[in-house]
Amino acid sequence: MPADYFFAPTDHWGDDVLGAGFYARALPLEPDEEGEVVATLVRHDPETDPEKLPGTPGEPRFNVLYLHGWNDYFFQKELARHTARAGGGFYGLDLRKYGRSLREYQTFGYVDTLEVYDEDLHAALKAIRAYDRGQGREAPLPLVLMGHSTGGLTAAMWADRHPGALAGLVLNSPWLELQTAASIRGISTPIVQQVAARNPKRVLPLGGGTNFYGMSLTGWLESDGPVPPELADWPDDPSVKGGWQTNELWKNPHGNATRAGWFHAIISAHAVVAEGLNVDCPVFVGASVQSSSGDVWQPIMRRQDTVLDVHVIALRAIGLGRNVQLVRYESKHDITLSDPEVRMEFYRDLYRWYDANLRDEQGRTLAADEPAEIKLCP
């Protein structure tokens, strides 16, 4: 088995690939036609994290469960540390056939309905509850579900199907509609449905060309010209030096194949979102202020969403529920991997949103005091 495959223990928390302060546990799921299936839950433990942020509470007051996007996995240590600083217990879930959960015999990321992830989430929530009980927390902590891109779509759909389960929903550039919007979805759905029915794992001729999003995750290149003023004070940040270091088996810099059955699951979910959801908890949606559809790399793409149509995403976001806050940033597709001042702004907004929306039965905030300075710790 190639070294890039990862096998977390199933009966206890083991050391994770992210290093000190992060622990992983495999969650066995029902097998499918390809064989055994697992999801993998990653837990952040601030007390054993040498880069714990100052002021991090000793005990969590709520839990946050993070869902990654397509061609992705959980690796955003900075997000975990700021969640802990805000008073949250942080967990990242690598869904079946992604990241730590991917096995050599599996089709990368393949499912034919997003509802299959209910099993992954149920297993994760059961493991979180068991861990909290083991720490002496008898009452369940309020839960915030957080999702990026396709994980944001999955999270929104799950929240809609599980009223009363969440204290909050946080979406980072959620993939709520096709880049070409509903008009093209209506035309393409019957075609995709026919292909998926005959050969669900057939690769569709979508995408192709240069992966500008992957390029945007690299450090500043000499060919990009002089480092801009907004990055000059951050010479060692991944946005300047070295880029965001990832496992290329789990996050292919060239992208991954789009299969008919999976794509049909996505556009079916988009159709549901277009009709409007009824998420009954407060919702925070972060998205970029601008998309990029150019076919030639430009450095400005590091501050644009090169994956989604952000204006369509913003339109769909306001239909998720009755309490939705939408904030736009000069960010790339993943706000948590954007330039330093953008990440600082995003974390500041999350601190304030947690404070305003997460309350105990007496109406007191569950969030820790907002730090005077937002520290970056990638």
From TrEMBL:
Which SUPFAM superfamilies does the entry link to? alpha/beta-Hydrolases
- One Pfam family this sequence matches: Hydrolase_4
Domain (Serine aminopeptidase S33) ranges: 59-200
Top-level lineage group: Bacteria
Check the record and name the InterPro entries matching this protein.
AB_hydrolase_fold (IPR029058), Hydrolase_4 (IPR022742), MAG_DAG_Lipase (IPR051044)
Q: What is this protein called?
A: Serine aminopeptidase S33 domain-containing protein
